Amino acid sequence: MKRERTINRLVLVWRVFAVALVVFVAVLVVAAADGHAGTWAGKVTPGANGTQTISSPAKGFAEPATLKLPELWRLGGDSEDEEEFFGVISDIDIDANGQVYLLDSQLNQAKIYTADGEFVRSIGREGEGPGEFRTPTSMFFTKEKVAVIQMMPGKIVLLTKDGQPGGDYPIPQAPDGGFQMIQGGESRGGNVVLYMARQKFDQAAGKWSRQSFLASIDPTGKQVAEYSSKENTINMASAEMNDATWDTFERRWEVGPNGKVYACNSYDNYEVTVYDKSGKVEKTITREYKHVPRTADEKAFMNRMFSHWAKMIPNCKVVINPMDKDIENIYVRDDGSMWVLSSAGARNLPKGTLGTFDVFNPEGQFVKQVTLQGQGDPLEDLYVFEKDRLYVVTSFLQAAMSAQGVQGLYDEAEEPEPMAVICYKLEGDVIAAR
Question: Which of 218, 163, 215, 213 is closest to 190 using CA atoms?
């Protein structure tokens, strides 16, 4: 803002006019290509250092759509085929040949299937030797190999596509030699981005801290950019764990097809920050939104989950926010559109509804809501958008919590359903970006 105050008033007026003109032209192009006469009623606010805030109203400029997705295939679940048994599928990725890789963090392997769901082979195994790993979180592809990310101690194990050890992908080390975890990673648009966490305990001060951040690395393991970053500190003398404080961009970030990074840095604001590859903030995308209050059952569920982690800290108090976070997750499609699953779009859904998504065009303007129909629960299952397909991993949260030893979250009398992977075809008017 200090920089803006030094700009000549006439120049500032001209720049605002120029931005408005560009947005107006963009809206006309979007409307013409989308086949309707809707007009975006939001605004663009210039910020410091060339950044922008793209603010949309609560309603999109196109009519909402509801689409029933055809199911192409499913694996696991009640199947008696041993090849289709899963522990905890933590990530799904597609290689250049269209083969589907299902990373199982409990079985410590990746199962490979054809695009039609036919089993090809399994690669990887549990251990500490070459080509081995434990509790992998995610994976990505290099030019010739599969990179599997182990959470702790953080490392990236390389495998050939036929399962042979391929060495390790180098990663940056903690500057003070502290404990480092890699909680996720993605490679897209020539940008390898890791979600990392470094933690340390200051015994003299009686404080434990964890720094979580998104960073891109090059093939030598050098960190070349940093995006979102946050430090959480717990004072052992008056320990408190607040779910709204701990749940910010974690699990709510994406790398776009051009390598840009999208992150939700706020718990109770409907906004997404977009960074260019170098780590510079390019724009912030917002939409008018009303917070969704949690039900008594939801608050109790969250309290049980956070209490499991808090019990490792003596006399730690758990605080659960009465409102849910505005954005549950974001998905950036290959066409540059961003699909946002809000707290409202993930709740009170009719049976057979996967969720209601807020679709934004590549310019960051809210276009319309799209409701997808199929079998899936956005609060319990894992959703992965890949090209023209949506993969749903059922019973994901329950299986993941059980694998971590979290007990008492669900009704113990109910037998959990076996995990399944469902592949849906995304077709019809599902891309509202152009």
Answer: 218
